[in-house]
Design a protein that fits this description.
205 residues, alpha+beta, Homing Intron 3 (I-Ppo) Encoded Endonuclease, Chain A, 3-stranded antiparallel beta sheet, 13 strands, 29% helix, 27% strand, flat
Length: 205
Amino acid sequence: MANNEKEIWRAHPEYEGIEVSTFGNVRSLDKVVPCRGNGTRLVKGRILKQASNGHGYLQVNVKIDGKFINKSVHRLVARTFILNPDNLLEINHKDCDKTNNSVDNLEWVTHEENIAYRDKLGHTARNNAPKSPVFAVNLSTLEVSRLPSRMEAGRSLGVFYQSINKVIKGRIKQTGGYWFKEDDDKADDAIKRKLHTLQSQALGL
C-alpha cells in the first residue's frame, strides 16, 4: 500500500540555511562553523522539531540573522511552494486541520475568504473529515488497538493526525512508536503481516 508520492525539499526563498518539504517538514542544512581556537567543524543539518503555538498551528524555531525565531510551518510551506501573484496575506487549510501542512492542503486567500471558509465550510469539512476507525500497532509491545477515528487516535496516543495519515498512506513507516492501518477489508491481513514482520525482526530472523 506504499504511496509513490515523493517528498520534495526546496530552499526557503527568504531564510538561508533551511529547506521546506511538500509534506510540511522543515530542516536545517549542513554548515561549517569555526571552532574555538583554530579550525572549523561541520554541524549536520536535521529535521526541526515542530510544536504547537498555542492556537493549533505548528511552528519551528529557525535561526534568522543570528537569532532563533519561531515561524509558522504553514507559512514556510506556502511561501516556498505556492505562487502568490496577488500578494494575498492569509493561508487557508483546506481540510480545516491546522496541523496538516502538506502543500496540497494549503492555499493563499484574502482575510474575507479565510473567514468565509471557516464560517461556511469549516464546520462541514471537520464533520466530513475521515472518521473511519483505524488500528494502531504499538511497535514495542505489539499490542493492537482499534480507535474510532484518526483524530481520536492522535489525541489518545499523543501523535499528530497529519503523521497518522502519512503512515496510512505509506509516506512514513511509523510515528510516535506506532504503525497505523485504516479499518477496511484488508486490515486483518495487513496487521497479521505487520506483526509477523515485527516478531521476525525481534527474533533476528
